[in-house]
Amino acid sequence: MTSDLAFDALADPVRRQILAVLSGTDECSSGALAEQITSVGRTAVSTHLRVLKVAGLVTERKAGRYRFYSIDPSGSARDVLALLNQVFRSGLLAVNDAVPNRSVPEDSPPDAAPTDTPHRRPA
Amino acid sequence: MSVLVLAVQEEVTAPPQVVYDLFGAGAGAGWVFDALCDRVAPGAAVTLRAPLDPAGPPVEILGRIGTLEAGRLIEIVHDQPWRGRTVLRFAAHGTGTRVRLQSELDRQGFEWLLRRRGHAVRSAPRDDPALGLLTPKSGPGNLFAAASDNMATLALEQVNADGGVRGRPVELMIGDDATDPATGAREARRLAAAGCRTILVATTSATFVAVSDALADTQVLLVQTLMNEGGIGGRLRVQLGERPADQLGAAAVPLMRAAGGKRWFLAGNDYCWPRSTHAAAREVLPRLGGRLVGERFAPLGTTDFAAVIEAIDRSGADVVLSTFVGADAAAFQRQCHGSGLHHRRLTLAPAMDESTLARIGPAATEGLHAVSGYVESLDTERNADLVAAYRGRFGRWAPPLSSLSESVFEAVHIWCSAARRAGTDEPHAVAAAMHGARFELPRGTVTLDENGVVAQRLRVAEAVGTELRVTTAGF
Questions:
Q1: How far is A50 from chain B (nearest CA, A)?
Q2: Which of B374, B401, B408, B397 is nearest to B387 (CA)?
Q3: Residues A15-43: what's their mean pLDDT?
């Protein structure tokens, strides 16, 4: 990734939003992404994804008629965003250690598992 | 300004108000909730110790608490190592709470993290002039430098609104010395390679010395903006800022009068500026009737000052000359206050600044004095304009200004005025135009003679809460 290209790519608010969504997930289909990004239409999301791809911020995987996107795993941007994500997440998870001891069931209910964005798995 | 908003959320097995109350309580609730702050109230200084560097110590995120909504929302407005807001939102979820965290990351912050993680960040060749700023964004110096990059940003925006230099906008490039001379030298080389022909250095003197050596073979102008002991020669070296002998000359007599005694204890961090300041004290204080009764040094990054405080107590000193800086100065002062030292003696801390006072907290600043050319509360028209512009640009929770950070604002304007006079940003011409010159700045008139010796009016100030207020108007 050349950083200048990356930052040019980041100059657009929709592209930053796409990146923020992708930073919280492994992979996301273009359809699921378009559902998350409501400020512009589907075609515009595709155009922005192309810019992010050229800038080396995002990789694309094709499976049948679907395309899946993730933050470029070889890129330094992914390293930094993944680190931030993990560090912030661990910061929040640790809160449970300090919660005053109450009758908390040993087995967490299924919806208490760490959740981020609803598109964690491609559709 | 492009800002990336990172969002994560987790569920916690306690109701929102309980989770909310864990913030700042030091209850072992992880690095986000175990934020260091004296109180959870809007405007309170807050430090988050983020484990962003797995190989090193936590990275301190310094800011203030902004908006609070009990049981619902906590906003942290931060400036180090990057500007942004981190917001925690709490919502009931079953019998527990869903905690959502959103954190802003701007381009500078992104670049800072990339470099911190060891990635190369390339910069495109440019035609516009670039001005470098080397400042501690991490390590114990992060505290006194909290407003430094804001100051450079504001000054350059003013310069660029006024036509820039050579008719072109000037770009600011920032390096982080991490309060470490070797890192500072590496960052200065990077800024020079990226096209900065002048680098403003607003770090400890230890870094300035290392940078000066590292760039000895280059044609880069280095300007040390803040107080220093001087002594670095060369046409491409300018050292602005207060000098220890002048500061002691201005402050010693009023301090001895206020303390009702003349015995001094010297205590500070173990590097060149404190050592030079102590050397100046050994010369200046006896001449003014003072007597030295003890001296101690502690390495930069010290957190436990019990031994130093005990030595001070035993010495029977009336005045402590404290040359601790940044986080060390904050910890030293808090521990002095904790041991009741302020009941028995006054402290003169020449490098004490408003940002460090905010960290010490209003309750523990009693008896603390500073001496500098600038304080944020300075009553001049130019300073009123500066403070209004600063708050307008960076908001009410931006860190306070101080002689250390404001020196960056002035250095940008001094550089720009010299470059315009010289008609070029060529370093030798700019340096020459800085000499034998007079500048009207927020702190007042600053002159540099033909040898680069700086003259400015010094003010003795007393800490009142987290503010420095002028008590003696100069000598």
A1: 19
A2: B401
A3: 84
Give the C-alpha separation, B151 to B156, whole Å: 9
Chain B: nearest CA to A64, how far in angstroms?
Answer: 31
Chain B residues with CB under 8 Å of a chain A CB are 2-14, 18-19, 22, 25, 27-33, 50-52, 94, 96, 99, 101, 103, 105, 107, 110-111, 113-114, 117, 119-124
The minimum CA-CA distance between B24 and chain A, rounded to whole Å, is 12
Q: Render pLDDT for B383-442 as a digit per residue (tens, 0 to 9).
A: 999 999 999 999 999 999 999 999 999 999 999 999 999 999 999 999 999 999 999 999
* Structural domains present in chain B: 3-105 (3.30.530.20), 113-242+381-425 (3.40.50.2300), 244-376+460-472 (3.40.50.2300)
Does residue B320 contact residue B293 with C-beta atoms inside 8 Å?
A: no
**Measured between CA atoms, how close is B161 to chain A, in angstroms?**
22
Contact (CB<8Å) A93/B10: yes
Question: Is A3-71 a domain of CATH 1.10.10.10?
Answer: yes
Q: Are residues A116 and B14, on separate chains, in Cβ contact within 8 Å? A: no
Q: What are the distances in angstroms from CA B309 to CA B299, B315, B416, B450, B469? A: 15, 10, 45, 44, 26
Over 80: is that where the pLDDT of A90 sits? yes
Question: Which chain B residues are Cβ-neighbours of A117 within 8 angstroms?
Answer: 7
Output the CA–CA distances (angstroms, integers) from residue B222 to A24, B190, B210, in the order listed: 43, 14, 12
Q: Count other C-beta atoms under 10 Å from residue B183's C-beta.
A: 20
| pTM (predicted TM-score) | 0.85
- What is the residue extent of each domain of chain A? 3-71
Whether residue A87 and residue B50 make contact (CB cut-off 8 A), yes or no, is yes
Which one of B10, B33, B114 has the shortest CB-CB distance to A80?
A: B114
The ipTM, to two decimals, is 0.87
Asked if the Cβ–Cβ distance from B11 to A99 is below 8 Å, we say no
Asked if B264 and B290 count as a contact pair (C-beta separation under 8 A), the reply is: yes
